[in-house]
Amino acid sequence: MDYPSTTPPLPAEYYRRHAERIRQLASEATTAAVKEHLRAVALQYERLAERVDHSAQPTDP
Fold it and tell me: Which of 55, 44, 50 is nearest to 13 (CA)?
């Protein structure tokens, strides 16, 4: 049985670009709830980028 990969399939830079775009939207938002939600989404993108970075690092033998 094949299981889906736990590593996001896109490059880390993809997620970082989206995180930056979401942070820009948060800075333009006019309500606190929307700003908070967008900042949380940006953080999730950053975490995905970190997962990609960590999965790309070779493991020690």
Answer: 50
